[in-house]
Amino acid sequence: MRPGQVVLNKKESWNKPRRWKNPQMVFVCPLSDYFIDHPAVNKVRDTAWDVMRNYPQHIFWITTKRPELIETKKMLPPDWPLANVWLGVTTENQHWADKRMPILRNLPVHKDSLRFVCAEPLLSPIRFAGPSDLNGFGWVTAGGESGDRKHPPRPAKDQWFLDMAAQCNAANTPFFLMQRGGISKCRCHHDFGCRAIPPGPTGQTFENFPPQVQVVSP
C-alpha cells in the first residue's frame, strides 16, 4: 500500500481525495511541516482542514516536528478532534523522541483516530521508555535517510530497526519499516536501500498497519 499525498501549496492536489473510489491513507504536506508557523501555510491550513473534513472515508495522517505549536498557536480546527485525522511526531533520535512524544501524547485525538511516531530518518537507536514510552500511540513507522552522491545520507543500522520492531511487538503496537535508506532504490520494493532486512526479495519486512486501515488500491 502506498499513501496518496496532499501538498498544501499545490491546490490541484486537494481534489485528489474526491477521485479515489476506495478509502485511502493520505500523507498531508509531505514536503514540509503542516504545523510550521509560516504565513503561506497558515493561510491555507483552514482550507486543508476542510478537505479532510469533507472526505471522512479517507485517513489523513500528519507528521510534525513542531508539536508544541499545535496548542500554543491554536492550529487545530474548532471541531477537533476529527475521526479521520491522525497526528504524528518525527523522532529521529532519542532526544527528540523524549521531547516530542510527551507533547503529542497530551493532545486529544478522536477515539477512532490515533497518535503515531515517525522515526524517519532514524539517525540513532531509540528506546521507547520513560517520556517516550508508547502509551497513547497506536502506530510506529521508521526509515533510513535517503540522498544522492552529492548529498550522501547518514546511514542507519539494521539493528536499530530490528530493536524498534521488537519493542513495538512487546507493546502490541504496529510497526512499519518504510525503507532502510541510501542513495539508490532496490528492485524488489523500489525503496531507498530496500525495506527488507537483509535487503532483497527474501529479507524480512515489517508492514504492519493499525486496525483502522483497510489496505486497498486507489
Low-pLDDT stretches are: 1-6
Number of strands: 7
Distance between the termini: 9 Å
Main sheet strand line-up: 1-2-3-4-5-6-7
Order of helix and strand elements from N to C terminus: EHEHEHEHEEHE
Overall geometric form: globular
Q: What does the main sheet amount to?
A: 7 strands, parallel
Helix/sheet category:
alpha/beta
DSSP strand content? 15-25%
Rg over CA atoms, rounded to whole Å, is 17 Å
Domain count: the total is 1
Helix count, DSSP H or I runs of 4 or more residues: 5
> How helical, in percent, are the residues?
10-25%
What would the average pLDDT be, to the nearest integer? 88
Oligomer: single chain
How would you describe this structure to a colleague?
The protein is of the alpha/beta class. The chain has one domain (4-156). The protein has helices spanning 16-19, 39-54, 67-72, 94-105, 158-170, and strands spanning 4-6, 25-28, 59-64, 85-90, 115-119, 139-143, 175-179. Strands 1-2-3-4-5-6-7 form a 7-stranded parallel sheet. The model is unreliable at 1-6 (pLDDT under 50).
Topology:
Blueprint: E1 4-6, H1 16-19, E2 25-28, H2 39-54, E3 59-64, H3 67-72, E4 85-90, H4 94-105, E5 115-119, E6 139-143, H5 158-170, E7 175-179
